[in-house]
Amino acid sequence: MSRRTAGPEIERLIQILAKLPGLGPRSARRAVLHLIKNREKLLSPLALALAEARDKVVVCSVCGNADTVDPCSLCSDPRRDRSVICVVEDVSDLWALERAGAWSGLYHVLGGTLSAIEGVRPEDLAIASLSARAAAPEIREVVLAVNATVEGQTTAHYITDLLKPLPIKLSRLAHGVPVGGELDYLDEGTLTAAIRSRREF
Amino acid sequence: MEWREEGIVLGVRRHGETGAIVDLLTGGRGRWTGLVRGGRSRTQRPVLQEGNLVLATWRARLEEHLGNFAIEPLSLRSGWLIDDPGKLAALTTLTCLCQLLPEREPHSRLYEAARLVLDALDEPAIWPALFVRWELGLLDELGFGLDLGQCAATGTREGLVYVSPRTGRAVSREAGEPYRDRLLRLPEFLNGSQAATPNTEDIIDGFRLTGHFLSRHIFEPRNVDPPDCRERMIARILQNRPGSEF
Question: Does this complex have an ipTM over 0.85?
């Protein structure tokens, strides 16, 4: 059994940090030590930032994004194209698209994918609210930016069937060779998808 | 302990940040679950998609341990299936139903049939009938096989057009006529006769037959609902039938 090297408060902090993605017990210990050494510069601002985030972060009632205001800053941004909605699985996907700066329309976070094995059904996801949003008269297009996995595409097909009666364009992200990717190192599935979705040069 | 065998990926669950618990259906060892270290990496994720055929090496200190899989891709069919909703629904239904099998019990015939169905998914005229037969095989492997060879009432092997929803035995046209509303229809392609290619109605009757007994013997006793993807698969078959307005 390992000997305790610090007081219970510090041990608790280590235990909590160790639960974060990318951190294990050893790296959490290093992080805590670094915080303690930089008490004023890091520990206090971090504690304040965490408390503030805990009090203020809400899930956007329109799109499902995480923000400190509801509707979120993306939904209430007047510069955004309000006629197109990009559907993503998770908030992390929304943030990835925003980082890329490739999308200027609205978003809709599903909160997961349909999964027969995990027992995730349409009613467990934000599909009904998507359906209601897509039926609004100003919506022209819904882009399904879900992962190119079996579960992601199953969800995409389900949503496509659901929204098909609406007079809107339904599209999905292209599947194929990533930028910087070498054909020799690509898996068969990606190569097949790339060949099938080839376009005129 | 170590073995090496081909298998179909049935499901993948996250394990920690980078690992994955992978459920495989192998020919010689049946359903087998193991840990794939780094299973959520960029290189492994495309391989560990449902329906892919892989070469798995399983290692563990003792037979009863979870053990580790080393997975190599053999045929990554999910890549070409995910664009087609019908084929994708068939793929997920098959992998989902395979998970009804008990672990570590060989089901080599069912495995071979599953490979046959997955290989045939590019041929819409063939795979639905194969899938119905595969579901009959699944019922058989789970101990609830149907007796479609002779009439339960008269013993005749001719004119079998119904199945008793209670016993799962075939019933001839003559014997079943008074009870036809209560009997399930036995499509011609399942009654052993030299039938022509089954039409969509025959296929749907086949799925209704297997669906009834899957519900009765498997889903209801386990208190689980039939997978939604099976309904979606059947709906797609109906949509794609000749003359359909879809």
Answer: no
Nearest residue in chain B measured CA to CA from A174: B83
CA nearest B96 in A: which residue?
A117
- Burial class for B208, CB neighbours closer than 10 Å (0-12, 13-18, 19+): middle
Angle at A167 between CA A163 and CA A169, to 5 degrees: 75
Cβ density class A98-112: b for 16+ within 10 Å, e for less: eeeeebebbbbbbbb
Tell me the CA distances in angstroms from B10 to A150, B101, B191, one per residue in order. 11, 11, 30
Q: Where are the domains of chain A?
A: 8-56, 66-200
How crowded is residue A74: how many other Cβ atoms within 10 Å of its Cβ? 18
Asked if B89's CB is within 8 angstroms of A157's CB, the reply is yes
Q: What share of chain A is helix, strand, coil (3-state, %, to 5)?
A: 45, 15, 45
Give A19-62 pLDDT, tens digit per residue: 998 898 899 999 999 999 999 999 999 999 999 999 999 999 99
A21 contact residues in B (CB cutoff 8 A): 17
Give the class (CATH, top level) of A8-56: mainly alpha
CATH 3.40.1360.10 fits A66-200, yes or no: yes
- How many other C-beta atoms are found inside a 10 Å radius of the C-beta of residue B130? 19
Secondary structure (3-state) at B145: coil
Q: Cβ of A23 under 8 Å from any chain B Cβ?
A: no
